[in-house]
Structure of ABC transporter ATP-binding protein:
Amino acid sequence: MALLALHSVGKSYGALKVIDAISLSVAPGETLGILGPNGAGKTTLFNLISGDVAADAGRIEYDGRDLGRLRPHQRCRAGVGRSYQVPQPFGHMTVFENLVTAACFGARQSEREAWHTAHEVLQQTGLAPHANKAAGGLTLLDRKRLELARALATRPRLLLLDEIAGGLTEHEARVLVQELARIKAQGMTILWIEHVVHALLAVADRLFVINFGRELAQGKPPDVMNDPQVQRVYMGMEA
Ligand SMILES: Nc1ncnc2c1ncn2[C@@H]1O[C@H](COP(=O)(O)OP(=O)(O)OP(=O)(O)O)[C@@H](O)[C@H]1O
């Protein structure tokens, strides 16, 4: 059974259909990469899954359960963790405190459990040397890592990553990809929006391409990348 399934999900803002009858599913342990031009509706899709925005059509099932009635914090506690395109740490708090907060509120852990989780996630994401630094003073790579770490500290089964490699150097993106590959190898189910295509291709099992809120293509990465419609719309190449 799929861990996440969207059935004809839709969202409009006034006359603008931002998400139009999207159906997709993600199997446990699978990484689905989401591609699409700017403004295609990718972040809105995440907002619908995390509950930041309410769908006005269709059904979203997580682990066989209708997410529709759950508020964002309830979805998080059910195991849906996410990162944001623009990192959103508590800047005045340390990295460690940010992780403890995520574990306490996102996973309902006791303070003791949350400390344990924070230590584990610091190791997992390479942030241990920065544990006592204020989150607001981190480099872009470390802010991206913290965004990933905060999502992991909520103890998700499904991880939604929104442009986690955006703005990084080639080397930094490679480091992040290695971290994500390790997380995936531990069995995490991942939905990853990314414009840095080579980073996405290094981890994704399947790709899903959105254009104007609709599905343009989905399937195995080589098939999708060679699809003439995808090449024309997404990469600006003539078929
Ligand atoms: N709250 C809102 N009110 C009105 N329009 C919105 C709102 N949120 C998003 N939109 C519009 O919906 C469309 C899709 O936006 P979205 O952020 O989901 O795209 P995206 O694919 O994530 O883009 P990018 O790759 O640039 O991050 C855009 O036209 C955007 O302007």
The mean pLDDT is 94. Residues 126 and 145 are 8 Å apart (CA to CA).
